[in-house]
């Protein structure tokens, strides 16, 4: 092992993962799949760029067709479908009315199982989007190009508000409902928004949460920074009853449900937008520094999420699709709202925690509504796996396809998902992408490629990834070494820029590997994702985690994800998080936090077995300095483990604000444990 380690360049990430077995899609899936052309990757090879992306544009309805598929004359500010004009809300609603007006667009499922769920047809959606667009235009003064901030939970009114903005040509900026008033204010200030759309409250884990109080904080903090909000538009969670304890501010706060009576039957002529006009801003919430306003286009973005929803998610009109993400994140924008609606899909919007009031709620809903495409995150899958009373076998559902998104999935967790939730009959697509990329970058094509646990798969058709070391040398497939995953070519779904900060855009995503900033050739501008990855000899990429999370132990760069994966092979371990702890001798060393499965008792013997699992799987170089067995790991409301907080505890640094976490109380528990 020592000799192997000695050959690792400091610019590469050492990889010790062994190759996993393949799983083939069933013939029944292949026969019905949207994309089953075995020549697709040959057609979409890089030599045919950019013309092959015309196929994506053809999936949309245009007011005026484009003159040019791709304009790369001002790198890296790419323009797609230049000369084309369209409207996103028309593509998501109007064009389906002729043949599918009575088809369900959304099923809204309240968290409380005793509350009636709503079925919103495409006709309903058309009416409600038009009426709210008329309200925005005529009452709130919203016009093309304005930014509108939307801070809402998972309710049907959220996509209605987004699509109403799109109909008017206004740029929406959705803030995740779990974020604080201050986080909302930061986004109002940066986007220079004058309108805030919100809700009085909602249910989560069986509790009523007062959401309106966050709006008051957001508007007050924005005002202090010089950004005035003219109107706060408040939807009632229970129409006809204002349910917040926070009073309305006269002249500023207005109940949408009351105002809408003035706009019954209103129809709004959709604004014909240039393909490159912005559709929305999505702010990334970095743990440090100012949030970045990722700007996505209308034509390029919409074409990309439509095509990937069709080809990778395999959505057909007759399918019932459930993505468990929050619409406040990019996954919800791309793969609950814009992609599925553009295809005329029927989707589920679920209000609260999927484990309420019991862990089998997802399977109950799947059975009741006939869900056959299921889309969730590794965090949620691990949560299901550790639930005491989970019993999917009791429910009569059949998934044809399951998705995992948001972070790399450990092979053992993948196999549990496949065998237990998917019943050995569902195809799994393990998708890798980012807020900035708009849609999937790496994934197997479900009918064409075999699945491999823990591997995202090849680039999706038309995307050509490459792995570079820190000096820009390409790391070859099958070398067993990791590096920085980049994309060689532009694609329609990619971000246009960072709002009001083009220099940061160029520096962040293109600065490292562009060897000639004066070049007008797109080939000289590879996109850097900021993730570590390795490329196996079969052309499948395995994501190793954020480059920021790579631990440099005495010159050996170790990806945190494979250390965590080694630990999760133990049946007793529910979740694991590896962080870089500062060390006087080695610079940094791994330190490990784990939570255990229910009814497992912590012991020194178990801690030692956890250490042994890492040493035997990866080597002595990866031996953790300490294993902390904790009751739970600190997580965001979307379920992501906050390794930054754990690193701060281990390194005795300022922890920062934890109030927006799903479980802030656990931070103090862990802090006390480590300090003692």
Describe this structure in words.
This protein has 676 residues and is α/β, with parallel strands linked by helices. 28% of the residues lie in helices and 22% in strands. The model is unreliable at 1-8 (pLDDT under 50). Helix 7 packs across helix 8 (157-168), helix 12 (299-311) packs across helix 13 and helix 18 crosses helix 19 (604-617). The strands form seven sheets. The chain has an eight-stranded mixed beta sheet, sandwiched between helices.
List keywords for this structure.
eight-stranded mixed sheet, 676 residues, alpha/beta, globular, disordered N terminus, seven-stranded mixed sheet, 22% strand, 31 strands
Write the layout of secondary structure elements.
Elements: H1 2-6, E1 13-14, H2 27-32, H3 40-43, H4 54-57, E2 68-71, E3 79-82, E4 85-86, H5 88-92, H6 97-100, E5 104-109, E6 118-121, H7 122-138, E7 147-152, H8 157-168, E8 171-176, H9 181-191, E9 195-199, E10 201-204, E11 207-210, H10 212-224, E12 231-235, E13 253-255, H11 256-259, E14 273-274, E15 278-284, E16 292-297, H12 299-311, E17 320-323, H13 330-342, E18 346-350, H14 361-369, E19 373-376, H15 378-386, E20 401-404, H16 411-421, E21 427-430, E22 465-468, E23 481-487, E24 497-498, H17 502-509, E25 527-535, E26 541-546, E27 551-553, E28 556-558, H18 560-567, E29 573-583, E30 587-596, H19 604-617, E31 627-629, H20 643-650, H21 665-675
Parallel strand pairs: 1-28, 5-18, 7-8, 7-9, 8-15, 9-12, 12-13, 17-18, 17-19, 19-20, 20-21, 30-31
Antiparallel strand pairs: 1-23, 2-3, 4-14, 5-6, 10-11, 15-16, 16-24, 22-23, 23-25, 25-26, 27-28, 29-30
């Amino acid at each position: 092992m020592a000799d192997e380690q000695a050959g690792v360049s400091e610019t590469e990430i050492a990889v010790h993962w062994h190759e996993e077995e393949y799983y083939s899609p069933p013939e029944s899936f292949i026969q019905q799949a949207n994309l089953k052309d075995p020549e697709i990757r040959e057609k979409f090879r890089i030599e045919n760029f950019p013309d092959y992306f015309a196929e994506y544009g053809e999936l949309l309805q245009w007011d005026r067709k484009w003159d040019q598929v791709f304009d790369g004359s001002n790198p890296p500010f790419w323009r797609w479908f230049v000369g084309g004009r369209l409207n996103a809300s028309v593509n998501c609603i109007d064009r389906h009315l002729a043949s599918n007006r009575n088809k369900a667009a959304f099923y809204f499922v309240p968290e409380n199982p005793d509350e009636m769920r709503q079925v919103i047809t495409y006709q309903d959606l058309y009416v409600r989007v038009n009426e709210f667009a008329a309200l925005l235009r005529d009452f709130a003064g919203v016009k093309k190009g304005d930014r509108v901030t939307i801070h809402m939970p998972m309710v049907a009114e959220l996509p209605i508000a987004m699509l109403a903005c799109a109909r008017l040509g206004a740029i929406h900026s959705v803030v995740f409902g779990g974020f604080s008033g201050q986080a909302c204010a930061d986004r109002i200030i940066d986007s220079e928004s004058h309108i805030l759309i919100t809700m009085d409250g909602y249910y989560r884990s069986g509790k009523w949460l007062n959401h309106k109080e966050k709006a008051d904080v957001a508007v007050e903090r924005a005002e202090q920074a010089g950004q005035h909000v003219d109107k706060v538009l408040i939807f009632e969670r229970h129409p006809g009853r204002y349910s917040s304890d926070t009073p309305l501010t006269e002249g500023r706060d207005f109940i949408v449900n009351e105002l809408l009576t003035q706009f019954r039957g209103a129809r709004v002529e959709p604004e014909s937008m240039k393909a490159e006009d912005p559709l929305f801003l999505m702010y990334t919430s970095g743990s440090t520094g100012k949030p970045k306003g990722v700007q996505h286009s209308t034509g390029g973005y919409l074409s990309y999420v439509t095509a990937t929803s069709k080809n990778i998610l395999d959505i057909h009109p007759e399918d019932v699709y459930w993505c468990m993400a929050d619409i406040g994140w990019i996954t919800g924008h791309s793969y609950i709202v814009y992609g599925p609606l553009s295809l005329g899909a029927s989707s589920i919007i679920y209000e609260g925690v999927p484990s309420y009031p019991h862990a089998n709620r997802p399977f109950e809903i799947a059975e009741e509504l006939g869900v056959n495409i299921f889309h969730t995150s590794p965090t949620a899958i691990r949560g299901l796996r550790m639930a005491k009373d989970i019993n999917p076998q009791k429910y009569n559902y059949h998934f044809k396809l399951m998705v995992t998104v948001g972070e790399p999935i450990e092979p053992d967790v993948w196999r549990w998902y496949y065998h237990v939730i998917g019943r050995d009959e569902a195809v799994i697509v393990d998708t890798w992408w980012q807020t900035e990329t708009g849609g999937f970058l790496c994934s197997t094509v479900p009918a064409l490629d075999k699945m491999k646990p823990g591997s995202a798969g090849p680039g999706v058709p038309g995307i050509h990834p490459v792995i570079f070391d820190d000096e820009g040398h390409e790391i070859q497939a099958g070398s067993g070494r990791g590096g920085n995953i980049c994309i060689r070519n532009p694609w329609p779904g990619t971000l246009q820029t960072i709002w009001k900060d083009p220099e940061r855009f160029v520096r962040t995503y293109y600065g490292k590997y562009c060897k000639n900033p004066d070049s007008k050739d797109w080939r000289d501008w590879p996109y850097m994702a900021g993730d570590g990855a390795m490329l196996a000899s079969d052309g499948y990429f395995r994501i190793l985690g954020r480059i920021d999370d790579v631990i440099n132990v005495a010159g050996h760069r170790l990806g945190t994800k494979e250390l965590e994966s080694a630990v999760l092979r133990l049946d007793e371990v529910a979740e694991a998080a590896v962080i870089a702890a500062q060390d006087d001798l080695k610079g940094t060393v791994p330190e490990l936090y784990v939570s255990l499965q229910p009814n497992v008792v912590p012991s020194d013997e178990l801690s030692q077995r956890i250490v042994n699992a890492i040493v035997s799987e990866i080597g002595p170089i990866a031996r953790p300095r300490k294993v902390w067995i904790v009751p739970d790991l600190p997580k965001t409301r979307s379920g992501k483990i906050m390794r930054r907080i754990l690193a701060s505890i281990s390194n005795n640094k300022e922890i920062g604000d934890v109030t927006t976490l799903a479980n802030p109380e656990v931070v103090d528990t862990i802090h006390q444990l480590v300090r003692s």
